[in-house]
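Forwarding these from the shared drive since the link keeps breaking.
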Amino acid sequence: MSDMLERVTITNFKGRIKEYVKDPNIEFVITRSGKSIGVYMGVSAWETMQNTLSLFRNNPESLLKSLEVHHRFQKSGKAEGHSLRDFELLLK
């Protein structure tokens, strides 16, 4: 996903947990009183993140390349972000 993560209140999260666990790709920030207190992600999103971290651990050059891309992104002033999948595709 290339947009900022959706924000879900803790109350909403508790009330809809059974719905959320059905989506293996879901990712969002959990908030309480407007402040971020955690992140929820489905198993597919988690596995993608773990695979990406493994790429970085096993290939430090990839980490440097992705940091350069991130630095250029920050300087661009764009409001959109990049997903872990975007970085995986970039590094292949």
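-- next protein --
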Amino acid sequence: MNGIRGEFKDYEKKALALFKKHGGEVLVAYAPEKENTKLEYPDEIQILRIENRTKFEEFMKDQERLKMAGERTSVIRKTEVYLSEEIIDYST
């Protein structure tokens, strides 16, 4: 994949591999459909799981991750993080 989308995916592969080293996992990642409105749509939404807040903070402060900051800035326009201790299971 070429261009910014390809560069984004390359960056995400590296960042998520590092996330996994900290015990995290990707539950799902998807690109939402964009409708013809003035709303700002994210390019991608990821649902991630990690053992606890301490592990998440260790990932965020990881020197390898911090060294990728320039690359990250060039391919990601915005990040929103929502933390939760609960995953709701509606299947039962």
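Strands lie at 25-30, 45-49. The helical segments are 3-21, 53-61, 63-67, 69-75.

- D.
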